[in-house]
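Re: that chain you flagged

S.,

Sorry for the slow reply, it's been a week of failed gels. I finally had a moment to sit down with the sequence you sent. For the record, here it is as I used it:
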Amino acid sequence: MSFRLGMLLFCLLLFVNTAAAAPCAQVKSQPDAWVKANVDALVRAAHAAYENDEALPAYQRVLGGIAHTLQQCRLSQDESFSSRYQRFVNYIEAVSLELQPDHELGFTVPDRQYFEETRQFVQIPDFLMTQSFLRSVSRDETLDEAKSFLKLLNSTRGPDDQLIYFSYRSRHLGTPDNDDSFERLLIIVPGNAAQGIPERWVQFGITDRGARVHIRNLSVVSAVTRADGTFDVYFKDFYRTYRRDGSISINGRWELGYGDDNCARCHKSGILPIFPVAGSVRASEQQAVEAANQRFLLYGSPRFENYLDTSKLGPGLGSLRLADHNQRPVAEGFGVTVAAHATTTCSACHQHERLGALNWPMDSILISSYVKGGQMPRGYQLTISERNELYKRLIQEYFAIDENNPGILKSWLLG
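Prediction finished late last night. Pasting the structure tokens below so you have them in one place:
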């Protein structure tokens, strides 16, 4: 009986291995056709997911299928294949990380390891953890009390150690615990590059005036500057727990079991500049907004230490040369207009060696808000119709899969 069972298992394994080898043999015999077909499928699915979150599962299935084939057929170990399609292989390995249940952040290490190794960079300063401050910063009605406390703190701190703080309403994204919550209090706590002390952007979600359900989110984004003109950026989301006795505790969102998000999807530049809803910042705090955005420009080019190599994600929006726009008017209804010139301006700043490329995966709400809202690209006075054209052009030129005029992502993946 044991002999028969052994033979049965042997035959079953032989069948499985033979079945798996068949598609692998086909891929290796026609690598160009396989890569091209899968690049088209991936870019098409990514475009759909960018436009509509409901298309994200379909994109993940396409991505997962490609990653599975690369692994099953050992294509990344195949010297001939990997050398010929190095960009494609590296890209799939990088973007498919977030498909793993313990890599929600999209980094090369498991989420638990990332938070353990970066704890020192994203700790909330003790002076922002007192119960009196946490209560005052929990609601719009008591926000002035929180600011009075911060003002008192600044009176005891040196000129180079002053806190920068202001409240505002975000133009684009709600908090992780409430998509409809847009009020924030941002506090920038100065660091010390010489001592390796990070500069921390601590942001509290504020419960709207009169609302009954408290906003829980509290985020920390930290910057550690390097001598080479770059900076490492670290992220962590925290949740506040409001207890019946009036006390408030703070724990990591991930540690509480609420999962997390792919940080680099929104934070291509590491730390984001602040463009509040018009009229949401007090006149007395406008200077603080300007100081925050000037601070952002001083850090240099964003890096994610060894947790993510953004160069593997390729060029971003606006990477076409102006001359290349001449090839697109007939097919896409565009000419070399003011919007075309503005398109090329994006990549002047948003590239790997400067503020980070705006590449997939990226957040459509954020990109649309900056472009259509008039914040980007800097230095252009465009009409609403011109901004709409600019945005449409940026997205089409990035995700196009046309055989004669492939877009930025497809062209790069195919080399």
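What I noticed first: The radius of gyration is 24 Å.

Talk soon,
D.
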